[in-house]
From TrEMBL:
<dbReference type="InterPro" id="IPR011663">
    <property type="entry name" value="UTRA"/>
</dbReference>
<keyword id="KW-0804">Transcription</keyword>
<feature type="domain" description="HTH gntR-type">
    <location>
        <begin position="8"/>
        <end position="76"/>
    </location>
</feature>
<keyword id="KW-0805">Transcription regulation</keyword>
<dbReference type="Pfam" id="PF07702">
    <property type="entry name" value="UTRA"/>
</dbReference>
<keyword id="KW-0238">DNA-binding</keyword>
<dbReference type="Pfam" id="PF00392">
    <property type="entry name" value="GntR"/>
</dbReference>
<protein>
    <submittedName>
        <fullName>UTRA domain-containing protein</fullName>
    </submittedName>
</protein>
<dbReference type="InterPro" id="IPR050679">
    <property type="entry name" value="Bact_HTH_transcr_reg"/>
</dbReference>
<dbReference type="InterPro" id="IPR000524">
    <property type="entry name" value="Tscrpt_reg_HTH_GntR"/>
</dbReference>
Amino acid sequence: MNQWTAAMPLYAVVKAHVMAHIRDGSWPPGTRIPSENALGPELGVSRITINRAFAELARDGVLHKVAGVGTFVARPKPRFGLVTIEDIAEEIAARGMAWSCQVLKLANDPLPAEAAAALSLPRGQAVPHSAILHHGDGAPIQQESRWLRPGYSAGYLEQDFTQGTTFAHLVRTGQADEMEQAITAILPDAALARLLDVPRTQPCLVIRRTTFTQGVAMTFSRLVQPADRFEIAGRAALAPL
């Protein structure tokens, strides 16, 4: 214990010990760390102190506790950019997880009001529509609903989106040159909570995204993800003040 940790509460010392092992790479993501019973004697603190430190680190997304199994170093959350568009399969893979998905719907469907307004098309007009549930290591990460202007992205409804994402297909076949997106938070209804495997009290992030080609809206997407499994981040240059 150095002069800094000597002045810290014991639970904070435990947290610093755990974080040091994570930062130096000795406990990489997915590592099962020593149990509360094992770590307490090693650090000379009580099991209650270890439990508090583990609970706070789990709340902060650093650790992941699995009942009856142990405590693990959490994998970084998949993230979307604020001013960029990324392939969710690549984002999930970059965090060390295996991407998979379930295609919930792939058909010509009537436009709901929100999508119709975004695409400047009549409500109820039939357009290509996909609904997909993305997973990371088998856990639901994002529910994606996407509507396309008719004639945009040839062969969209004939694709096998379990083998590649809608994003990847649209990059190959579309000509988007601009995008607009907004992010809000919601509490899921019963159906969405079941789909994402979260309680109805779990906040979820909603990204509403419209892409354009030469000023004309071509796609509208509604992306919903549990807030504790996903991250929105970005970095941009600023003009001199």
